[in-house]
């Protein structure tokens, strides 16, 4: 396994890698034009768009293929110079769930191949697929176009199934098989963290030489501590959001689904009332995001939960916020809670810290990397609301500890940026292109030892 972001990568600094002129990014099931924080749109959408922008700034054109889901958008949308989103007609525009999309793989792949066939030969130098459905498309396209395939899984079914939230549905066997196929066929597998790289190797038998860690980033221009200082910035953000200026705010931001476990935060607020009623009375739990089709059957379940626990007055809900509205949410909070059962990385945790807000997170998956325990936030083992209430009860009244964690959070977040991520990916792309060319040359020269496919 190699690591580029932190500079552990092979041949670091040895020679400049070739840079692709144009890459085909495949994001079948969700478009970077969708609002993240609801439905199937989340961190992957943010990742795809942020990376595309940074690559285009580095003179690498990016064409993003996604399934058409709206009649309002033209077939091709230029979102930034050098970044195009191409909508591929495959199945009805509305009404298909993510679980039904495997049935549209053929139609979608046909659309991608047709788009490439209309271009001059050798149009794309490389394919980068996101999520296993896109990996299946990339696998076929790679064989047709004779270019390498880089794949990022974003989530892994076997890992998710091993840590299922109560009420969540296990991922089907078809997805597990599909992921195994993509892992076997991709030239490089990009993992967000060492934990994910380890999962790819241990659970999917990935070849360690093809697994590379490139950490995601955060937009440090958008997500930054308030210029007026933490206290004044928090008050201003609360006024903007109509939240009480006094008292404590703990925010959850993200898609509302069992995997993300916003219910743990609500139950913790109720458990806090049993431990420390005065403190619990000063607490507002802020839930920001929309229902996600991939789990929560009843979007009103959290409202009902708060009512059944007798804490409706303590819980506020906000719809999904645009990127420009989110900094105020993070700054308004004393703590941002990320109680997920699993996270490939956890961009919300990073964004909150970049705004100077410490994070209380479950010690799972990428959150162990995204949050520095006791420095930029606190990691909690498990999802017992009593444990979460105990930590809230200890932290919230401790202003000086929160200030220290806040400074640690902003410092920790500065280790991440989308520029670093794009630089890491460019290295991976270059390496992969060189190896691919060498294998092709060996094949043409009839050297079976070198020409063997992975
Ligand atoms: N997000 C957003 N508006 C919201 C809630 C979330 O734009 O109301 C974004 C958030 O900024 C983050 C992404 O959705 O970049 C969620 O990414 P994360 O890695 O935390 O979770 P995922 O959705 O990938 O599971």
From TrEMBL:
GO molecular function: acetylglucosaminyltransferase activity; D-inositol-3-phosphate glycosyltransferase activity; magnesium ion binding
N-terminal signal peptide: none
GO biological process, one term: mycothiol biosynthetic process
InterPro entries: Glyco_trans_1, Glyco_trans_4-like_N, Mycothiol_biosynthesis_MshA
Domain Glycosyl transferase family: 236-401
Residue ranges crossing the lipid bilayer per the database entry: none
E.C. number: 2.4.1.250
Residues engaged in binding 1D-myo-inositol 3-phosphate: 29, 40-45, 98, 131, 155, 175
Pfam families listed in its UniProt record: Glyco_trans_4_4, Glycos_transf_1
Residues involved in Mg(2+) binding: 330-331, 333, 357
Residues reported in the UniProt entry to bind UDP-N-acetyl-alpha-D-glucosamine: 35-36, 43, 255, 260, 321, 343, 351
EC class name: transferase
Keyword terms, alphabetized: Glycosyltransferase, Magnesium, Metal-binding, Transferase
Glycosyltransferase subfamily 4-like N-terminal domain ranges (all copies): 42-217
Catalytic activity: 1D-myo-inositol 3-phosphate + UDP-N-acetyl-alpha-D-glucosamine = 1D-myo-inositol 2-acetamido-2-deoxy-alpha-D-glucopyranoside 3-phosphate + UDP + H(+)
Disordered: annotated segments: 1-20
HAMAP family according to UniProt: MshA
Subunit structure: Homodimer.
Homology family: Belongs to the glycosyltransferase group 1 family. MshA subfamily.
Function: Catalyzes the transfer of a N-acetyl-glucosamine moiety to 1D-myo-inositol 3-phosphate to produce 1D-myo-inositol 2-acetamido-2-deoxy-glucopyranoside 3-phosphate in the mycothiol biosynthesis pathway.
This protein's name: D-inositol-3-phosphate glycosyltransferase
Organism: Micromonospora yangpuensis
């Amino acid at each position: 396994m190699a690591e580029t972001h932190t500079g552990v990568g092979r041949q670091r600094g040895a020679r400049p890698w070739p840079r692709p002129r144009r890459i085909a990014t495949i994001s079948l099931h969700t478009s970077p034009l969708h609002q993240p924080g609801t439905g199937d749109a989340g961190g992957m959408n943010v990742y795809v768009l942020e990376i595309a922008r940074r690559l285009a700034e580095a003179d690498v054109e990016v064409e993003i293929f996604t399934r058409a889901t709206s009649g309002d958008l033209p077939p091709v949308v230029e979102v930034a110079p050098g970044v195009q989103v191409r909508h591929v007609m495959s199945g009805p525009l509305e009404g298909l769930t993510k679980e039904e999309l495997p049935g549209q793989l053929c139609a979608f792949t046909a659309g991608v191949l047709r788009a490439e066939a209309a271009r001059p030969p050798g149009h794309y130098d490389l394919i980068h697929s996101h999520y296993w459905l896109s990996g299946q498309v990339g696998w076929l396209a790679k064989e047709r176009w004779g270019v390498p395939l880089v794949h990022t899984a974003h989530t892994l079914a076997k890992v998710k199934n091993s840590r299922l939230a109560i009420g969540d549905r296990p991922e089907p066997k078809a997805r597990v098989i599909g992921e195994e196929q993509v892992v076997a066929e991709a030239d490089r597998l990009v993992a967000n963290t060492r934990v994910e790289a380890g999962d790819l190797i241990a659970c999917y038998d990935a070849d360690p030489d093809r697994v590379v860690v490139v950490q995601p980033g955060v937009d440090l221009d958008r997500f930054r501590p308030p210029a007026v200082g933490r206290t004044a910035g928090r008050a201003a953000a609360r006024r903007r959001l109509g939240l009480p200026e006094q008292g404590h705010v703990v925010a959850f931001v993200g898609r509302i689904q069992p995997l993300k476990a916003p219910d743990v935060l609500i139950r913790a607020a109720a458990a806090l009332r049993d431990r420390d009623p005065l403190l619990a009375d000063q607490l507002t739990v802020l839930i920001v995001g929309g229902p996600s089709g991939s789990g929560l059957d009843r979007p009103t379940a959290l409202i009902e939960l708060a009512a059944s626990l007798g804490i409706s007055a303590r819980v506020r809900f906000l719809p999904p916020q645009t990127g420009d509205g989110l900094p105020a949410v993070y700054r308004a909070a004393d703590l941002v809670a990320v109680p997920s059962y699993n996270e490939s990385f956890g961009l919300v945790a990073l964004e909150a810290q970049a705004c100077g807000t410490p994070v209380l997170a479950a010690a799972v998956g990428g959150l162990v990397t995204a949050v520095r325990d006791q420095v930029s936030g606190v990691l909690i083992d498990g999802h017992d609301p009593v444990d979460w209430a105990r930590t809230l009860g200890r932290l919230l009244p401790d202003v000086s500890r929160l200030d220290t964690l806040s400074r640690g959070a902003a410092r920790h977040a500065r280790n991440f940026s989308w520029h670093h991520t794009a630089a890491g990916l460019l290295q991976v792309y270059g390496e992969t292109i060189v190896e691919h060319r060498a294998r092709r040359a060996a094949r043409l020269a009839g050297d079976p030892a070198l020409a063997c496919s992975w």
